[in-house]
From TrEMBL:
It comes from the Bacteria. It holds the Pfam family Glutaredoxin. This is Glutaredoxin. Residues 4-64 form the Glutaredoxin domain. Has a glutathione-disulfide oxidoreductase activity in the presence of NADPH and glutathione reductase. Reduces low molecular weight disulfides and proteins.
Length: 86
C-alpha cells in the first residue's frame, strides 16, 4: 500500500470529503493538520509547488492535488492503482 499524506485544516468540508473517501477505501493515511502547527503550511506549499489551499494530498511521492483531484482520480478508476502501488 502506498504512503498517503493529507494536509488539512479544521472545519474544511473539502478535507472532510477527501478523508471520507480514503476511509471508504480503507486506506491508512497521515493527516497533517496545518492549523495545529502553522509552520507546516510552508512545508505544504513547497511540497505542492505553490498550492496553498487544503487539502493537499500526496500518494507516495506524487502530489495528487486537492479533494476534486482525488475524486476525479477515483471516478476515472485510477485511484485504486495509485493506492496499491508501493
Amino acid at each position: 500500500m502506498a504512503k498517503v499524506e493529507i494536509y488539512t485544516k479544521a472545519y474544511c468540508p473539502y478535507c472532510s470529503h477527501a478523508i471520507a473517501l480514503l476511509k471508504q477505501k480503507s486506506v491508512s493515511f497521515n493527516e497533517i493538520k496545518i492549523d495545529d502547527n502553522p509552520s507546516l503550511r510552508s512545508v505544504m506549499i513547497e511540497r505542492s509547488q505553490g498550492a496553498y489551499t487544503v487539502p493537499q494530498i500526496f500518494i507516495g511521492d506524487k502530489h495528487i492535488g486537492g479533494c476534486d483531484d482525488l475524486v476525479a482520480l477515483d471516478a476515472k478508476q485510477q485511484l485504486d492503482t495509485l493506492l496499491t502501488t508501493p
